[in-house]
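My hope is that you will study the record closing this message with an eye to the fold:
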Amino acid sequence: MQASNVMSSPRFSAALRVAIAAAAAIGGAVLLERALALDARLAARTGVLAAGGGALVLWLAATRLASPRFGAANTVTLVRGALTVLLLALVGIDASVPLAWAVVALATLAAVLDAVDGALARSRAEASAFGARFDMEVDALLILVLAVLVFQHGKAGAWILLAGLLRYVFVAASYVWPWFGAQLPPSRRRQTVCVVQIASLIGALAPIVAAPWSAALAFAGLVFLIWSFGIDVAWLARRAPA
């Protein structure tokens, strides 16, 4: 009876999902190693990253998740996180056309799932502050990883790293100017720009998009992102205490 209660508990359910997602990321790394003759340490790197990320997700769920269930929507976001971890593990591996296509495929799947978790949260009444933050942080990490890969693959200059760093600069600024940390209202514009930024980075990584067109595509996405951040900063500044 006690074993049954433990297995049905929210914490056990969340831990099981995190473990499955981590195992899937490691399995994907092993497949890439064999299919593309990549560095044999890729799976080990993926495992370390997945373990660290999974522990962070479980800690945040234990401290921030108000719902007794982890939920289907958060599970989809977790899958996106596992795909992002696998992409992160590919950073530093010598670029090649097959690897670039693999990156495009993984990133596209993560981007498509971004639309699924939100729809699930609304349809299943699972929307929560934790889910929204979890989704946003996975998006931010995905953009950072893709920006690094775009630079690594020689598709754009170092300036593209700003696309991935803007979110973290924004968070760091809130420790200096607390009004940066105020709650922003929901915004369709912000969601659209996030999609545009991710799509532009994926497009820039595609082997059929050669430089300088890849750089132009990446730059267009960065311009939209800076514009969106600028609107949010202006909104926060107008409401900042004197």
Confidence is low (pLDDT under 50) at residues 1-8. The chain has nine helices and no strands. Residues 2-238 form a domain with the Four Helix Bundle (Hemerythrin (Met), subunit A) fold (CATH 1.20.120).
